[in-house]
Amino acid sequence: QLYRDARECLTLLSQRLGSQKFFFGDSPASLDAFVFSRLAPLLKAKLPNGKLQQHLKSLQNLCNYCTSILSLYFPWDGGEPPASAPRAAGADGGEAEEDPHKRRNQVLSVLVGLVAMLGYAFLSGIVSIQRGGAGPAARQPIALEEEEEEE
Predict the structure, then answer these.
(1) Where are the domains positioned within the chain?
(2) SS (H, E, C) the chain
(3) Which of 56, 108, 115, 139 is deepest in the core (most CB within 10 A)?
(4) pLDDT tens-digit readout, 30-40
């Protein structure tokens, strides 16, 4: 039943697409992105049971639709990645070309992690800050109290 429904869905999509480039004319819409996200893996992946894949391959306009979107938005598919894609470290120019802001990003991620951990510690009550009274005699240094573990 599931395969029959899926075959019917593919056939209806093929009929709706007809000879158009996209479902709603010459420019892609969100429906095109959704349909492509379902059809491309079905068309390209190696599947243990290829009944549905064979049916899709028999619908030439849907195959052309997927191929058109792949070549338009993913021109490197099956070949070399685009020139703007980051290179592996040490490939041609060393690590400096990989990411010019790598060190800054590392420092920022460590700082964000520290702030998150400290925030959690204070908000959950693991660490608390207690201050003394307002008078000069009552001034005490800020003390950090750790929650005692009960045995």
Answers:
(1) 1-74
(2) CHHHHHHHHHHHHHHHHCCCCECCECCCCHHHHHHHHHHHHHHHCCCCCCHHHHHHHHCHHHHHHHHHHHHHHCCCCCCCCCCCCCCCCCCCCCCCCCCCCHHHHHHHHHHHHHHHHHHHHHHHCCEEEECCCCCCCCCCCCEEEECCCCC
(3) 56
(4) 999 999 999 99
